[in-house]
Amino acid sequence: MTDTTPPPLIDPTAHAIFLDFDGTLSELVDDPASVALPEGTLEPLMRLQKACGGALAIVSGRRIGDLDGFLSPMRFAAAGVHGLERRATPDGETERLMTEAELDPVREAFASLVRDHPRLRLEDKGLALVLHYRTAPDLEEVARRAASEAVGDRGDLLVMHGDNIVEVHPAGMDKGKALADMMERAPFKGRTPLYAGDDTTDEYALDVVRRRGGVSVKVGAKDSVAAFRLTDVAAVHRWIAQSIRYTDKNEDPIDG
Ligand SMILES: O=P(O)(O)OC[C@H]1O[C@H](O[C@H]2O[C@H](CO)[C@@H](O)[C@H](O)[C@H]2O)[C@H](O)[C@@H](O)[C@@H]1O
Question: Which domains does the chain have, with CATH numbers?
Answer without folding.
Answer: 15-97+174-248 (3.40.50.1000), 100-170 (3.30.70.1020)
